[in-house]
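Sample entry (319 residues):
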Amino acid sequence: MKRNYGPLYAGPQALWLAVFFAAPLVIIVAYSFMRRGLYGGVAPGFSLEAYRELANPNLAAVAFRTLWVSAVATAITLLIALPCGYSIARSRNQPLRLFLVIVPFWTNFLVRIYAWISILGNEGFLNDFLRALGLGNGLQFLYNQGAVILVLVYMYLPYAILPLFSSIDKFDFTLLEAARDLGASRMESLRLVMLPNIRGGIVTSLLFTFIPIFGAYAIPLLVGGKDSYMLGNVIADQVTKTRNWPLAASISMTVTFITGLAAILYLARSRRTAPAAQAPLAAQAAHEGRDSRRPGDSRRPGAKGGARGAAGKAAEAAA
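Predicted structure, serialized as tokens:
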């Protein structure tokens, strides 16, 4: 009888997660229900005062600003990552292109931020270039929301490209040929056939970008201004400057709970709707393609048989 060594192998990993993930989370939860100490920190005793302070209108304004910046940066990141992932998946030089995507990870996070400061600063490369062309004299590219969104997109773009590439690379591109043979245009086949089949990669990219952007601290601090103060900066200031640890812990727990709950609900909804959404894809693509086809459109020889074979593959994949 073979012995089960699974628990033995999983033991170090479980210990690591317990010490460096679960234990700090328990400490933050405990701090959020304590009182602020006389000289900062926490004082023993149960209190909900930290959660009552979350109703502060100024804090609510910062939360909405954080949500807005995170949503815009995530949307731009996904819009750029989709064609990039598609291009890498269809390329014959996948290793080289993946290497170019991964290269920024070799550089320290702060070094990359300061590189953008040297580009966007009043005496940076961009302003020097515009001065040389006579188009400006010290334009303000830094210390605003636009600079924060730009640097956030740059920093988290690889986190969106890699999951999308993985999903697109596994996609059966003959399904696109089936939709095209049935009359769908190129954009219709991509929208109705490919996007629903790579939904998992899209959701993963969304989570990998939105959640860390929502808690960003260093980028708004270094390249943002007064209109770029985000929740991560509030938490850091409450810990280091005002030393209101219970309030910092309550903000952290609220953000963690909301983002975690939203991610769980979104994943659950995606799993419920995926089987129902895949079945009519080929029929819908064919229907829209027939509506948009010009009268008298000639088909290439052998397209009918190819369409039937590809349509069969599409129906089998949908089933």
